[in-house]
Amino acid sequence: MIQAVNLCKSFGNLEVFKDLNININRGECVAVIGPSGTGKSVFFRTLAMLEKPDSGQVYINGTDITGKDVNINKVREKLGMVYQGFHLFSHLNVMDNITLAPLKVKKMNKSDAQKKAMELLTMVGLTDKSLSYPHQLSGGQQQRVAIARSLAMDPDIILFDEPTSALDPSMTGEVLAIIRKLARSGLTMMISTHEMSFAQDVASRVIYMDEKGIYEQGTADQIFKNPTREKTRMFIRKLKVFSYSINSRGFDMVEMNVQIELFCQKYNIEPKKVNYIQLVLEELILEVYGDSSINLQLKIDFTIEFSEERNEILISFVYDGRSFNPFEAAEESEHLGMVLIYGVSKNYGYSFENGLNTININI
Amino acid sequence: MEFFETIVNSLCNNLIGGNAWLVLLNGLWVTLLISASGLLLGTIIGAILCAMRISDVGFLRTLSKIIIAFLRGSPVLLLLMVFYYVVFANSRIDAVYIAIIAFALNNGAHIAEIMRSALSAVDKKQLEAARMLGFSKFRAFLAITLPQAGRIAKPVYQNATINLIQWTSVVGYVTITDLTRTVNNIGARTGDPFFALFLGILLYLCLSYFVNFLFSIGSRKKEVL
Ligand SMILES: Nc1ncnc2c1ncn2[C@@H]1O[C@H](COP(=O)(O)OP(=O)(O)OP(=O)(O)O)[C@@H](O)[C@H]1O
Ligand SMILES: [Mg+2]
Fold first, then answer.
1. Chain A residues with beta carbon closer than 8 angstroms to that of B129
2. ipTM of this model?
3. pLDDT of A293
């Protein structure tokens, strides 16, 4: 249905995506997610040739639409777009907004166009607004009209670019309900969105965009329940990550603590937990460096992952050298530090693999 | 009673005597002719200058910028005199036509700027939305941008029109007998300048109202935006 092959796009020095490949089949509903600024909008705009790709092709029903001799207006009749900002024609009323293109582009006759518009307005639940002007409607209503306007051309596919991002939370529901209905009816669509639960619910396929392209894709369950790649996982779980490296025993612990403090403040982690994090890390570092048989140039890397969604903190603490499990060591002799760690952590684990010791602690 | 008689006397002296009302009507006609033609031609010139001003060709943009700056910066009376005494000094062209050219150019520069600012005030995404529905660039411009820009420009354009009419009162400097010149002549002839000049002001006022009326016809139908 719509296919992108090695699509590349940059603005000057800014490379938005490169070698992007995707194939969307008839009837699919593909959700595109990813952090702000990863190029979801630019991707959609490039598919519609509103931005000229630097290289690569876009095929719609098998024809390459990037060519010079393609009548892009004809192509776009079958390619709908719904914007974050609605962009209804402000000088026309709802009815005229919807019938304008069918009348002028498709040369439909007026009564047919109006009849069709009325059907669409019924579908989006706005029959009583047909004579209103866009500025008289709420955001949610405007977006519903914009969807009807797009549907009036009978498109093969609609691209929804963050259709609810500009809306009040109280109005997103009415718009999402219509998009959901369209997806169920088998309309081919792509939708970029920050509404994760909606994407999970409605999408037959989810694409996570990052790192200048499609970073990971799969079914909604795969992406939302079992993301395999690092950044996807961080994005889905809304993880905030802090990493830090220590190269020798003589490192600056005060500076480390300040940085942890700043990170925690930024994400509003409760002060009690901040103390625990610092305590656990200090004790672990002491344990590791305290083991006399261990090389003093030992390298430690740790990350603090904070999941906003679950309000959970995961510390992973990795160091090289020989296998050394401080939890075992603590059992042999009384270590006050380790007792403290047991006290504040929800659970903990140790593993040794490829010459790296890894300790995971949940707080 | 006496006051009333004075007025009637003045009226007779000024309007009936020597068929003054015919002369007056002729002056009014000249003013209208210069204004309307200046406006029409000015609008065409303005559209061309504006198109150049927003075109992709750097040379055209610069050229129109210079022309607009020059035309807007020079007083219309001086422009008129330059045309009359210098540019067309040796030609046989009627002074009225020269005035029309001068006013069209001056007015065109103003209209070009009015058009440009109106166009830039229109939401460009609406044009894009139309293109996504299959409109060509030109037809999307006609269907979306133009009507919206027109609506934004209208009040400014209306003002420019009234300004233009009033500025045409300087054409007497180049021997044209327009409304202003006519009332001046009548006043001089009857020795009662107050009445004649006042009548002139009244007539200009009527013209303004007439213009406002014309502009309000269009917007009466749709009271939006
Ligand atoms: N016309 C343009 N000129 C230059 N840079 C642009 C242009 N349009 C977008 N960009 C840049 O391209 C990058 C991707 O932008 P894009 O709007 O596609 O992000 P997004 O994934 O849609 O983000 P969001 O979720 O905030 O909408 C951004 O860094 C943006 O600044
Ligand atoms: Mg976007």
1. 81, 83, 87-89, 146, 149
2. 0.79
3. 60
